[in-house]
Structure formats: structure tokens, C-alpha cells
Amino acid sequence: MAALAPGSTIGILGGGQLGRMLALAAARLGLKSHIFCPEGDNPGSHVCDCITLAEYDDAAALDRFAAGIQVATYEFENVPVACVERIAKKIALRPGIDALRISQDRLSEKTFLSGLGIATAPFAPVDDADALNQAAARTGLPAILKTRRFGYDGRGQALLRTQADIAGAWQKIGALPAVLEGFVAFECEISVIAARGADGAIACYDPPENQHTEGILSISRVPARISGTTADAAREMTRRILTALDYAGVIGVEFFVLKDGALMVNEFAPRVHNSGHWTLDACATSQFEQHIRAICGWPLGDPARHSDAEMRNLIGADAGQWSALAADPGLCLHLYGKDAPRPGRKMGHVTRLFSRSANSDAAS
Ligand code: AMP
After folding, report:
1. Which of 241, 274, 327, 355 is 20 to 30 A removed from 98 (C-alpha atoms)?
2. Cβ distance 105 to 156 under 8 Å?
3. Which of 32, 103, 116 is nearest to 71 (CA)?
4. Do the Cβ atoms of 174 and 202 come closer than 8 Å?
């Protein structure tokens, strides 16, 4: 596919905050965006050129959508595979279907990573309550039972501390196909946000260190408190994943860092990632612009960061503090324009910039 010229239209499946920030980045490059999403509170729809409100299995709506765009992408990983298969028959889909299919299922994701020689937490499939005892014998306890599909932000998970927790765990996650993961006593969590262009070029951002509260990302700080060797190893594993998937676009790969600096991949998201939001304010090219460049066949932008940064999510009622946050001259404030500040809902984020530290791990 030749590079898409300014004025071309990018189709985005999903109308959340990631779709919104992608549409804004596209607009900055003179590209148009058409968002496809079901009815609801869709902050992406406020800033795009065109919107289709329809279900992801509405074949006629998908066909009309595909007919009016020059490339398609997705902003969340739970888009039904049948939907992207239909679109990919008509128009380039970036990233491709494999990345989506693999990352939708924790078991296929871990199997894929193991096949690349990339370490993960010890894991075992759990297809019914009886299989749980056997799985626990393989992974050891403590362990976390996670539904294979549709889990995010810590949902669909149960912590098994001791043998006594096994009995109720299967019901607790909704009696769905699952994987049991050994609990990793990590030192910290980091992620690599990286892009692969249509020509195979790869650009990685410096890995942020991520802090979660109740399974939801709360803070990303860059640089992470890791050695240059660990940062390089994380980037190298990310490159391996991107190449194996023949990927085009931005990916977010989440890692556990162990005491000795060894890495395990927790999961990857085939899209722009919450732990990369700091790139909007601390880099010449944000992860959103980078994704647009990659899927449009443009050269990738410079991922170097000009500042250290700390990004905090505004979750639920946090966004009610917008006035005080806006009055702080050191904060870059991003609000997503969502209607209802429900508990656990990501309403916006703030990024504070600092002078770039000398002891950065930054080699890329
Ligand atoms: P996930 O939904 O798999 O991304 O999990 C959300 C968060 O739960 C992770 O970012 C970790 O903080 C924690 N977590 C998930 N899996 C494990 C594990 N196997 N061992 C320790 N902590 C975990």
C-alpha cells in the first residue's frame, strides 16, 4: 500500500478515549477519521469527521464504513474477530487480524509468547472447576485465576492465596474458560510502547514504570527505575513480538521486572496504550501520531523523550478536580469528555514534566 496522502480517511473501530486521541492526532496530520462504534457515551465521536453508530455485527453498516475509508484500525482489543475479518476483505486493516485474535485470549497469548522464547508467569488452562486443582499443582500458589477472554483492568480475576481459595474461585470469575497464572513477586512493572511501520521499521519509546491500583493503571513514570540492560531486553522482546506478527501500528507490551532484572511479559495490547499517554506531552511524536503514521505507511516519527514525565489517570470522581488541576501550571491536563464519572472509569489524565534526567536508560 502506498503512503496515504493527507485528506485520506482512517476508519477507527471503537469510540473511546483512545479513538478520540487517535482522531485528534490524525487531524493534526491533515487526515480524516471515521469512527465506528455502538450507541453510548463515545468520546471519540466528539472529535472525528464522521461517525457510524452501529453494532459490530451489523454487516451492512460495516460494509458502508469500509467503502468510505482508506485504512482501518481498532482502538480496543475486544472488537469481534468476525467484524475485522469482514472489513479486512475490503480494505487494509492495521494492525492485522492475528494480533487481535491472539491478544483476545490469554491462553493463546501466553502460548504465542512462549513459542517466541519469551518468559511469562507459569500458567495452565482451566476449562472447568475440576481442572483448577491440577492447574494449581502446575503453577503453585499463590496464583491468579483469569478469564481467557474479555478481562481488562483487573476484571474477571480471582486471587488464590491458599488451597482454601480454590473451591469458590471458578464461580467467582463467572465459570468461564480461564487460565491460572502463578503469582509473580515482581519488583516493578514496566511497559514498552513501540511502533512498527508498514516498511518493517521499528521505533520504541523509553519504557515507563507503571503502578496499578485494584488492577487499574494509576501512574506511569518515565524513566523507570531499571537498568539500561533491562530496558534494552524489554525493547528486544517487543521487537520480536512485532516482527512475528508482521505488525503495523503501535503496540503496548506489559512486563513484570523481577528482583534480578529478568523480565516476564504479562500481556500485550495491539493498540495505543494507557501507559503511553505521557508521550503526548514528553515526546516529539506521541504514540497516537506514531500509530497514525504507521498505519498510513508514513515514516515513523522520533520516539525520543525530551522530558521525564509522570502520568496520572483521572479515574471516576478524580476528574471533578478539573478546576484545581487546570490551575496548576506544571500539569498537562487531558479530559476525555465522558458523561458519567462512574467509579473505575477513566475520565482523563494529567502529565507532569520534569527536566530530562542524566541517568536515563534511554538507548533505543
Ligand atoms: P492484567 O489484567 O492481567 O493486566 O492484570 C492487572 C494487574 O494485576 C497487573 O498489571 C499486575 O499488577 C497484577 N497481576 C496480574 N497478573 C499477575 C501475576 N501473575 N502475578 C502478580 N501480579 C499480577
Report:
1. 274
2. no
3. 32
4. no
| Nearest ligand 1 atom, CA 212 | 12
Q: Are 192 and 253 in contact (CB under 8 A)?
A: yes
Cα separation, 218 vs 110, in Å, equals 25
Q: Measure 106 CA to ligand 1 centroid, in angstroms.
A: 12
**Closest Cα partner for 328 from 340, 343, 312, 344?**
312
Q: Which of 126, 144, 254 has most ligand 1 atoms within 8 Å of its beta carbon, as the pocket-test mutant?
A: 144
Which of 191, 194, 193 is CA-nearest to residue 219? 191
Whether 1 has a pLDDT exceeding 80, the answer reads no
Residue 25 parent element (H or E)? helix 17-28
| CA of residue 25 to ligand 1 center, whole Å | 30
pLDDT digits (tens, 9 = 90+) for 97-113: 999 999 999 999 999 99
Amino acid of residue 46: H
For residue 225, what is the DSSP state?
A: S
Cis status, amide bond into 341, omega within 30 of 0: no
Provide the CA 29 distance to its chain's centre, in angstroms.
23
Give residue 154's pLDDT.
66
Closest alpha carbon to 148 in 121, 115, 173: 173
- Out of 138, 254, 256, 266, mutate this one to test ligand 1's pocket (max ligand atoms within 8 Å of CB): namely 266
Domains delineated in the chain? 9-93 (3.40.50.20), 122-182 (3.30.1490.20), 188-363 (3.30.470.20)
C-alpha Rg value of the chain to the nearest Å: 20
Phi, psi of 142 (to 5 degrees): -65, 160
Tens of pLDDT, residue by residue over 157-183, are 999 999 999 988 999 999 999 999 999
Give, as one character, the DSSP assignment of residue 333.
E
C-alpha cell belonging to residue 124:
495452565
